[in-house]
Design goal:
The protein is mainly α and 93 residues long. It is built from four helices and no strands. 51% of the residues lie in helices and 0% in strands.
């Protein structure tokens, strides 16, 4: 059975020490910062960079994701979430 986007987001949140969300929602800045840290993308944390910058950094660090700057303004697609979840599962914190 395939997982939904919401299930993938929650698995990623739990993998980086964040809380599962009941409602369907994109990643918060704090969750994106935790994902950046987990995949080895160095970011400035005070203040946190824009979400688009963190998503681009995650895409670039993982390398398997499309790091087209035009994609930075949109949330991760399901295929991207699957890759991120797989990377986090292979290399837990």
């Amino acid at each position: 059975m395939t997982r939904t986007v919401d299930e993938l987001r929650n698995e990623i949140r739990l993998a980086v020490g964040r809380y599962e969300r009941i409602e369907s929602t994109a990643f918060t800045k704090e969750s994106l910062a935790a994902i950046c840290e987990a995949v080895g993308d160095e970011i400035e944390t005070n203040p946190l960079p824009p979400k688009s910058q963190m998503r681009a950094g995650i895409r670039s660090t993982i390398g398997e994701l499309n790091d087209d700057p035009d994609d930075a303004d949109r949330p991760f697609r399901k295929a991207e979430l699957e890759i991120i979840e797989s990377v986090l599962r292979e290399d837990p914190q």
